[in-house]
């Protein structure tokens, strides 16, 4: 059984502020440790369920956050950037399940550190006219490859968002939103035990296999800046919805790859902090 773990940071146990998750932040090093501990709990659960291969992709920010020296040796790590598929780099149809650790809710949601990929540079996203963020786009891309999302950890808002996209997904709320930068925290030992048990149980339950799909979808993104939207129109397959919104039509994995290019274009044109 081959398991893929995509690890973000905002939804990690105990983390609530940009200072916890951004390089240079006062508590970033503690955040790195917390992120690694949550991932290790998921790895232990996968091992208990009989996983023969576990690949972890560091999916947050610089994608060099996980503490390699204390990462469970049962997992292989994909680290660094740029990566063509970003948060799901390395995910292929050969994997049996996807696990998302430390995920957060989409831009505009009432969730801890809620945003979609680039902080307030991205105001809204839609997949087939459905509001989405990282959870929705990752889930849809994995499903198109035939890989089910079986478990997700994050705050309660992220867990609900995941359940909306993948009914039946097992979720672990490691904190409960009290504000965008405030939460009621589960004790670390309790959260780690819950992650391990939930991953082990969800993988042991034999879910029906997903059939890979080539069905096209439409991704639309509203940017804060009309400059970004206007510049993206130079990319084939990108069309304008309005002065700040662009869209493209393709399969979800191809849209995910292309969206990574959109973000690199946006980064070259803007210089704004992600959590203002």
UniProtKB/TrEMBL annotation:
It holds the Pfam family Peptidase_M55. InterPro entries: DppA_N, Peptidase_M55, Peptidase_M55_sf. SUPFAM superfamilies: Dipeptide transport protein. This is M55 family metallopeptidase. It comes from Catenulispora pinistramenti.
């Amino acid at each position: 059984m081959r398991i893929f773990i995509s690890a973000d940071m905002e939804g990690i146990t105990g983390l609530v502020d940009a200072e916890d998750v951004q390089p240079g932040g006062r508590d970033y090093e503690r955040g790195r440790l917390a992120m690694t501990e949550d991932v290790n709990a998921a790895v232990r659960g996968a091992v208990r369920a009989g996983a023969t291969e576990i690949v972890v992709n560091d999916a947050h920010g610089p994608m060099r956050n996980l503490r390699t020296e204390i990462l469970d040796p049962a997992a292989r790590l994909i680290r660094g950037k740029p990566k063509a598929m970003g948060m799901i780099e390395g995910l292929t149809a050969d994997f049996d399940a996807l696990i998302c650790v430390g995920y957060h809710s989409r831009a505009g949601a009432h969730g801890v550190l809620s945003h979609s990929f680039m902080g307030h540079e991205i105001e809204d996203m839609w997949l087939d006219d459905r509001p989405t963020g990282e959870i929705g786009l990752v889930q849809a891309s994995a499903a198109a490859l035939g890989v089910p999302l079986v478990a997700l950890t994050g705050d309660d808002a992220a867990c609900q968002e995941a359940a909306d996209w993948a009914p039946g997904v097992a979720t672990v709320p490691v904190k409960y939103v009290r504000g965008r930068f405030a939460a009621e925290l589960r004790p670390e030992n309790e959260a780690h035990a819950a992650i391990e048990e939930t991953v082990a149980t969800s993988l042991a339950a034999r879910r029906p296999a997903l059939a890979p799909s080539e069905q096209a979808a439409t991704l639309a993104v509203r940017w804060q800046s009309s400059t970004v939207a206007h510049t993206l129109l130079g990319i084939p397959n990108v069309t304008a919805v309005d002065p700040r919104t662009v869209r493209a039509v393709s399969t979800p994995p191809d849209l995910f790859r292309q969206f990574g290019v959109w973000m690199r274009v946006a980064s070259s044109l803007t210089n704004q902090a992600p959590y203002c």
